[in-house]
C-alpha cells in the first residue's frame, strides 16, 4: 500500500524528493506547489468528460471511462516518472488526495518507483500555507512616500544581515499604476501565495522580518489576508526624504520606458489626479519632462500614502529623516536606528 504523508512531512521531504502534481494542465497552470512537475492523468477535456459521467451515470461508469481514457498513456507516465525520480523516489498529489494521486502512485509503485502521496492533496497544502502566514513573527514595515527607494534599502539591509521578503519581486509588480513597467507577467494570486510561502517558510522565527509597506493589492495579485492583517498591525519605520530626491529617483527608475506605456499609466489614475493634472502629465511625457510627470503624480501618491498611515494604530509609526537616496548608507542608518525606538 502506498504511504501517505501529512503536509508538514510532505513539505520537508519535497526539499530532496521531486513532487509530481497529477491534476489537469489547467489546474496546474492556475497554481501549484512551487517546484512541482505536472504529469496530468487527464487532459482538461478528459477531466470534464469524467466529471460529467460521474454526475449523470455514477461513480462506476466514471471510473470505467477514466480507465479507457488513460489506458494508452500508462507507459508514458512511467517513462516520465523514471526520468524525474531522485534515488528512485517520488512524491505525488492531486486536489484532495483522492483517486487521481492514489492511481498514479499505484502505477509508479508497480513500476518499481517508491512513491508517497499527500494526505488531503493540494487542498491541505493550501490550508497549511494560509496558517503559516498567520504565525506570530515579529514584523517591521519599512514605509515612506513613493520614490523613497524603499525596496533598494531593504535589499541592502538583507545584504547586511537582516531578514527581508521582497513582496514586489514575488508579485512581479511595484505596486503603483506604473508598477508593471519592466516586470514579468503576474501570476494568479494563488500562485503568488505559493511562491511567497517558499520564502516565508525559511524565516527564522526568532528574528525580525522586514517587509515593505504595501497595499493589499500589488497589481493584480493580493496579499494573503492573514499576512495583510499582520502587516497593518505591525510597527512602521517611515523614511522621510526630500521630494526633489524622490522625483530624481522616479525619473531614473521610469524615465527610460516607452512613452505610450507611461501615458497609459497616467490614464489609469486620471480620475484621482484630476483631468487637468493628468493632461499636464501626458503633455510633459511628450516633451520628455519626466521630472514634471513625477512631480504631478506624487501629488496623488503622497496624499494616498498619508491617508493610509492615518488608518494605522496610534503610535505605531516611527520616523527617520534621511537626506539622500543612498540605499547602502540608508540601510546602515536604519539598522542602527530601529533598536533605539520602542518597536
Question: Would you write up a description of this structure?
Answer:
The protein starts with a strand and ends in a 6-residue tail after the last helix. A hairpin with a 2-residue loop joins β9 and β10. Helix content is 53%, strand content 13%. The protein has helices at 7-13, 25-30, 44-57, 59-70, 74-84, 99-110, 121-133, 150-159, 167-171, 189-200, 225-233, 243-254, 259-268, 270-273, 275-286, 290-310, 327-337; strands at residues 3-5, 19-21, 37-38, 89-93, 114-118, 139-144, 163-164, 209-212, 217-218, 221-222, 236-240, 317-321. The chain has a 5-stranded parallel beta sheet. Strands 7-8-6-11-12 form a 5-stranded parallel beta sheet, covered by helices on one side. It has 2 domains: 3-129, Oxidized Rhodanese, domain 1, CATH 3.40.250; 135-340, Rossmann fold, CATH 3.40.50. The protein has 17 helices and 12 strands. With 343 residues, the protein is α/β, with parallel strands linked by helices. The radius of gyration is 25 Å and the shape is elongated. The model has no long low-confidence stretch (mean pLDDT 94).
